[in-house]
Amino acid sequence: xxxxxxxxxxxxxxxxxxxxxxxxxxxxAFGKIVSSLVSDVVMPTIGVIVGGLDFTSFKIILKxxxxxxxxxxxxxxxxxxxxxxxxxxxxxxIIALSIFFMVKLLSKVKGRLVKEEEKEKKxxxxxxxxxxxxxxxxxxxxxxxx
Length: 146
Known about the structure:
Blueprint: H1 2-12, H2 15-49, E1 60-63, E2 66-67, E3 73-75, E4 78-80, H3 82-123, H4 131-145
Antiparallel strand pairs: 1-4, 2-3
Helix pairs in contact: 2-3
């Protein structure tokens, strides 16, 4: 049992696992933000533009609700919720667009950092060779030629 616990402990504290956990948590929070953006900002705006429609209310009734004699529902209607599907498509498109721009921005920043590092490396001049180093280089070359 100790062996399995050690293996699990080793696995759980690896950097990749922790990075993945952080990414999942941030991704979940980001998903909630984008879903709120779509459902609370984008979809109402689109609804107003197209005449006050609420997309989430779009349904195709496959089977009508069954009512008893007093008008109470004994069996609810079976519906295809097309509006929710449209909402989820907009969620996906906005999330994909957001991630696309985020990756594009990060690659641009990374490119700039790489260019700056290369520029710094080019500007670095090697230290001048001392007399001792010069003599050692000559000795090395002589030994190499023998």
